[in-house]
Amino acid sequence: MSTLMNTYNRLPVEFTHGDGVWLYDTAGDAWLDALSGIAVCGLGHAHPALTKAISEQAARLIHTSNIYHIGTQRELADKLIAASGMDCVFFSNSGAEANEAAIKLARMHGHNKGIDLPTIIVFESSFHGRTLATLSATGNRKVQAGFGPLVTGFARAPFADLEAVKTIAKNNQNIVAVLVEPIQGEGGVHIPDPSFLDGLRELCNQHDWLLMLDEVQTGNGRTGKYFAYQHHSWLPDVVTTAKGLANGVPIGACLAAGKATALFGPGNHGSTFGGNPLACAAGIATVDTLVNGKYAEKAATMGAYLQQQFREKLADQALVKEVRGLGLLLGIELTQECSILVQKALEKKLLINVTSGNVIRLLPPLIIQQAEADLLVDGVCQLINAFAQDTTAEPA
Questions:
Q1: Contact 328/363 with Cβ under 8 angstroms?
Q2: Is residue 298 domain-shared with residue 278, that is, in the same domain?
Q3: 22-25 and 15-19 as β-strands: parallel, antiparallel, unpaired?
Q4: Do residues 127 and 187 make contact, with C-beta atoms less than 8 angstroms apart?
Q5: Which residues are catalytic?
Q6: Contact criterion met (CB below 8 Å) for 63 and 69
Q7: 351 and 322 co-located in one domain
Q8: Are the C-beta atoms of 280 and 112 separated by less than 8 Å?
Q9: Is residue 113 part of a domain?
Q10: Each residue of 241-264: pLDDT tens digit?
Q11: Whether pTM exceeds 0.85
């Protein structure tokens, strides 16, 4: 019997070390990592700048407390503000915690306006975390099952349906904010028309709502800009991020701008470990490397290349419904459930993910080179074509 709680269906492989886009298992075999720890290791594995920063900081100071000033925290905040255009930052340990901070900001905004039951508009098929509040905001009944009663104060709309949001606005006077992913990752790599997010910004301006973007997965260069909202010409009121912010060291951030900056005062929110010296040193090294190395721009170029290659090589494959993505957040939607492909990929020493049942989600490190991208394309196309043949050969 395992001493670990049974919360994961773990795959039969264990890794001992990594180098760039490659991971190495206990037998010494190399694996092409097209998942990056689910969008975490944007700089790949064992990046020298990160290794140096963590080692040097660990030798000096790992943790004090947020009741004192923390120099690395201020420095990382300054770099995030410069990269984002936002005004201030709260540091936590994860994306779910960053989203908890955003939810509390929205509720404080509502209470300051005299609204007793502040309500946040969220979306079907969304994913915001597994704490009780973020689970309640998430639009996935499967992950919510067994955890009721859920937290109230959320109104749900179909993703990318601006008219549905307008209808909620007419019928609910308690709305104080909108919480939305610019691209739904867990929900199946769904990319809305730009007019949807533009329309949400206009509605939030019109109704004095907070526009809160969950960029836990899309931030830190993943989509071809440092943040996905930077494909537009406006700022959100709140943006959350985590995953790729420190390349594997646990950290989350909730950034605020404009009217959201003054909502919290001392005692309104906090975190024991959030923004400690070690995590922030890792964050500084990551942000510096991403920005100075122009990895967001490289993600845009390589993502466009991968999409082109997949579309060309899978053009005649009837099992493929659509290839879509932005930067190095890619989805290949099949016409049927294909979770088995995660296991099949192990036979090729390839790490991929299937989300929403029938979407192959690819999140390679932002440092991926063309030769490695070609290996990824070949491996995934072989998987899909073999799966199509097996499916056709199955008896009716």
A1: yes
A2: no
A3: antiparallel
A4: yes
A5: 127, 214, 243
A6: no
A7: yes
A8: no
A9: yes
A10: 999 999 999 999 999 999 999 999
A11: yes
